[in-house]
Amino acid sequence: MTQVLCIGSVLWDIIGRSASHMKQGSDVPGRITRLPGGVALNIAMTLKRFGVDPVLLSSIGRDAEGHALITACEEMGIDCDHVYRSDDLPTDRYMAIEDANGLIAAIADVHSLETTENNVIAPLISGPFGTPEAPFSGMISLDGNLTQSLLEHIAVSPLFAECDLCVAPASPGKADRLLPLLIRGRALLYVNLEEAGLLCQTEYHTAAEAAQALLAKGARRVLVTNGARPACDAGQGESFVQTPPDVLVTRVTGAGDTFMAAHMAAELAGAERADALHHALEIAARYVSGDTLL
Prior knowledge:
Elements: E1 2-7, E2 11-17, E3 31-37, H1 39-49, E4 52-57, E5 59-61, H2 64-75, E6 84-86, E7 93-99, E8 102-109, H3 111-120, E9 139-143, H4 148-156, E10 164-168, H5 179-183, E11 188-192, H6 193-200, H7 207-216, E12 221-226, E13 229-235, E14 238-242, H8 255-268, H9 273-288
């Protein structure tokens, strides 16, 4: 197994879904679920399915919700030994509402992660995963639920200079937090078309167009998705554009994280770039259709 550090949000997803079409003020029948989630955990769960050994670096409270979340992660075989456990902060939560057209609205309460993020990355500073004398050199997934100040630090820190850094914004509302990593060409960025436009302060019509703009802004390599429309992998002198499979969408929360993790796993397994993109789009399509991944 290949070990990957997953740094970011690990929380409870509370998702309300309805087959109805909704607008502001709608009150409709549906289903409400609570599942382990958060960008870092969504990525870790998918990596695990493809034979990768994920290690979570996050913050989880010592409340009842936190104990239940740790238990759920460990039952999936995900390493939680280095998760920071707070005695006085609650476990973070995410709440979303989805209708027949997809996501209506969502709120991510990651206050505990933001408050304790220096404790979260401590294993990369004082071991066991790295020290100033021997920085971590493996693959790391990182998400924009970390604060702007920490992401700015990571963009220039020698502690992250040797690793293979894969980064996602977590949501369009947090896309601008990735600017320091973008302009320094420090990471492989996974963004959707809206997030790419926010990073460049321009509206784009295609993933390929947005990808080239991000490269021009300083990115080393980017993967830009656009829902059911063609996605693009651009960087290192090459560009690949592929169209996702046509499926009936039954869920959207976590789709981008699933795409990112499937792509990371394919590249870790040695897949060529075009094949890795194809694999990630297939897996993400199966996820949004409600199919099991493996």
